[in-house]
Amino acid sequence: MGSLNLKSIRKAFGTHEVLKGIDLEVKDGEFVIFVGPSGCGKSTLLRVIAGLEDATSGSVQIDGKEVITTPPAKRGIAMVFQSYALYPHLTVKDNMGLGLKQMGAPRAEIDAKVGKASTMLSLDPYLARRPAELSGGQRQRVAIGRAIVREPKLFLFDEPLSNLDAALRVNTRLEIARLHRSLKATMIYVTHDQVEAMTLADKIVVLNAGQIEQIGSPMELYNKPANVFVAGFIGSPQMNFIEAGRLGDSQAKTIGIRPEHITLSRNGGDWKGKVIHVEHLGADTILYLETEDTGLLTVRLFGEHRYDVDDVVYATPDKALMHRFGADDRVQR
Ligand SMILES: Nc1ncnc2c1ncn2[C@@H]1O[C@H](COP(=O)(O)OP(=O)(O)OP(=O)(O)O)[C@@H](O)[C@H]1O
């Protein structure tokens, strides 16, 4: 079991309030990801859950039990840090088994659990090595293995992939997804990489300036952002925002349309404009236009397209997929 319930979590450092009343329910077995801009309080919230940071007020319940005054080691959680935090003088095997050893588990149990985790993570050939003799990706797998061995109620990950290169990030991401499926464990994960969030999470929590802007599945956030902030934060390239008045809409303040929900033509369409930059990404082409109706507009076309800088083109949005936001920046449905 591993459910988590946060109620009205507040945290201030001196006079600086970093978490401004966070309420969140995480069900047993869920993979929940915190995203948000740098400094919005993601890591602080994770550290409050772990008990590494005291909340100024509020409640943290794990499996229905209040743990706000419980020390980190007694909360039944395991945390995986960006920096791996391995002991340099211990072998991989001993690093992975250390938590159980400190809890006084018998040698045979430690060996069995470490063996199982190391096979799961393809670490068997490295058990006798020390961290300095491993690559970054292998070290991160040892840190994950150490967490698995402890069989925690909650796994907490703080940007675990951010020190890895692009290819390794993708591989390790897949591995974490697979682990989540096979362990059926509750995982809470902090990242500022929205691709990681979209691909791993059952549920994404979008934080901004110490508050939750929206909670939802990746596709809910993509298809139905609650406000301009979430609409702009989820999706890459970013959603286009157009002043509603420019499009003759007097009810809304802002119209949002994703780059992939616009088609282009040389012959005619809604918004006439000029290509100012083209990015060929292989599978996609990203075009930046300047149109009289919208100003700067980003368009994402699938496949390769032969548009060049200074070409005159017509952009047409899929009107069913436009988002209308009111004066308060909240979506109007
Ligand atoms: N120990 C501390 N003392 C004072 N201020 C702190 C402390 N820890 C964090 N902060 C401040 O709290 C705010 C939130 O920090 P936090 O690390 O939670 O943000 P974050 O969303 O995880 O950012 P990033 O994506 O850059 O890691 C920041 O303004 C930070 O400077």
UniProtKB/TrEMBL annotation:
Membrane topology label:
Peripheral membrane protein
Q: Where in the cell is it found?
A: Cell inner membrane
ABC transporter domain location is 4-234
Signal sequence extent: none
Pfam families registered for this protein in UniProt: ABC_tran, TOBE_2
- Report the domain of life of the source organism: Bacteria
What PROSITE patterns does the database record attribute to this sequence?
Answer: ABC_TRANSPORTER_1, ABC_TRANSPORTER_2
Q: Which key words are in the record?
A: ATP-binding, Cell inner membrane, Cell membrane, Membrane, Nucleotide-binding, Transport
Report the GO molecular function annotations: ATP binding
- Spell out the InterPro entries in the cross-references: AAA+_ATPase, ABC_transporter-like_ATP-bd, ABC_transporter-like_CS, ABC_transpr_MalK-like, ABC_transpr_MalK/UgpC-like, Mo/tungstate-bd_C_term_dom, NA-bd_OB-fold, P-loop_NTPase
* Protein family membership: Belongs to the ABC transporter superfamily.
Q: Under which name does UniProt file this protein? A: ABC transporter ATP-binding protein
Supply the source organism for this entry. Answer: Rhizobium herbae
